């Protein structure tokens, strides 16, 4: 491996072979994709919440049981939670410098997003299928 005199890598990084992890592009695009998806989904969510605010309990259950509303709620949850997880991961990676803490926080961030998603989707499906 020849040394490029214009490289900004340190000699230690060259010896260790450290460089880009090659996963940043996918992470970047997933964040952008979920951000774009969140625009119409958030608008739909606001409309649904306004409609829910005007209904009694039975009416609210009937609205959430509507297949289109249920699908929009689930799509919003998946997109928003994925976007949140990715954003928090970037914050953790940028501002937590101790490797052990960083790994624990990234795991907790992922577990939180998955748990919130599963609980929310379960509730929507339960209402949607009339249980």
Structural notes for this entry:
The protein is mainly α and 131 residues long. The chain has a single domain, classed as Up-down Bundle (3 helical TM bundles of succinate and fumarate reductases), CATH 1.20.1300.10. It is 79% helix and 0% strand. It contains 5 helices and no strands. The chain has helices spanning 11-16, 24-53, 57-65, 67-95, 99-128. α4 (67-95) packs antiparallel against α5 (99-128). The radius of gyration is 21 Å and the shape is elongated.
- Provide the gyration radius in Å: 21 Å
How many discrete structural domains? Answer: 1
Strand segment count: 0
User: Do you know the CATH architecture?
Assistant: Up-down Bundle
**How many H/I helical runs?**
5
| Overall helicity | over 70%
Tell me, rounded to a whole number, the average pLDDT: 89
What characterizes the major β-sheet? none
* Separation of the first and last Cα atoms: 64 Å
Q: Strand pairing plus helix content: what structural class? A: mainly alpha
Q: Fill in the CATH topology.
A: 3 helical TM bundles of succinate and fumarate reductases
Name of the CATH first level: Mainly Alpha
Low-confidence stretches: none
Judging from the principal axes of the Cα atoms, what is the shape? elongated
CATH superfamily: Fumarate reductase/succinate dehydrogenase, transmembrane subunit
Q: In what range is the share of β-strand residues?
A: under 5%
Order of helices and strands: HHHHH
């Amino acid at each position: 491996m020849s040394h490029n005199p214009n490289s900004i890598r340190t000699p230690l990084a060259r010896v260790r072979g450290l460089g880009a992890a090659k996963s940043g592009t996918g992470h970047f695009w997933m964040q952008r994709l979920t951000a774009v998806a969140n625009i119409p989904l958030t608008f739909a969510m606001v409309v649904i919440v306004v409609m829910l605010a005007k209904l009694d309990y039975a009416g609210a259950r009937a609205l959430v049981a509507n297949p289109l509303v249920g699908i929009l709620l689930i799509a919003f949850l998946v997109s928003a939670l994925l976007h949140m997880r990715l954003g928090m991961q970037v914050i953790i990676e940028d501002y937590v410098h101790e490797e052990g803490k960083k790994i624990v926080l990234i795991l907790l961030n992922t577990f939180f997003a998955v748990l919130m998603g599963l609980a929310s989707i379960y509730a929507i499906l339960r209402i949607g299928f009339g249980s």
